[in-house]
Amino acid sequence: MKIGELSRKTGVSIRSLRYYEQQKLITPVRLDNGYREYSPFAVEQVKTIRLYLGLGFTTEQIAGFLHCVLQNKESFCREILPMYKLKIAELNEQIQLLTMIKSNLEERVHSILEENGGLAGQH
């Protein structure tokens, strides 16, 4: 199938598909006329790539385990468990930072409201 058809079947833009190709996540065959020709399996590859992007992984990280998860069940890929644990640790750090920022903002709002007799933001 051509790149436009792959785009329609997966809902992924042609630009993104070309990027995935650049990152060596998908590999089309080049026809004599220069067109990209994708196998029917490319649809599953792209959907899998989108799944892992949605979980917060980078294309570089995905490249490290994509072949394994496409060939086997996820639970048989030794590469993926450490990646999941690392991603969870990163998310926990981000949650902690965001919680602190939110708390600081709430304190500032409370302080402003107290200083203005509860009328801050009213004109």
Q: What is the β-strand count?
A: 2
- Strand proportion, as a percent range, falls in under 5%
Order of helices and strands: HHEEHHH
Task: Give the CATH architecture of the largest domain.
Answer: Orthogonal Bundle
Helix content: 55-70%
> In total, how many domains does the architecture comprise?
2
N- to C-terminal distance: 61 Å
CATH class of the largest domain: Mainly Alpha
Rounded mean pLDDT score:
91
Overall shape: it is elongated
Strand order of the largest sheet: 1-2
Q: How many helix segments?
A: 5
- SSE-based structural type: mainly alpha
CATH fold-level assignment of the largest domain: Multidrug-efflux Transporter Regulator, Chain: A, Domain 2
Low-confidence stretches: none
Rg from alpha-carbon coordinates: 23 Å
The largest sheet is: 2 strands, antiparallel
Task: Give a summary of the structure in a few sentences.
This protein has helices at 3-10, 14-22, 41-54, 59-71, 80-115, and strands spanning 29-30, 36-37. By secondary structure, it is mainly alpha-helical.
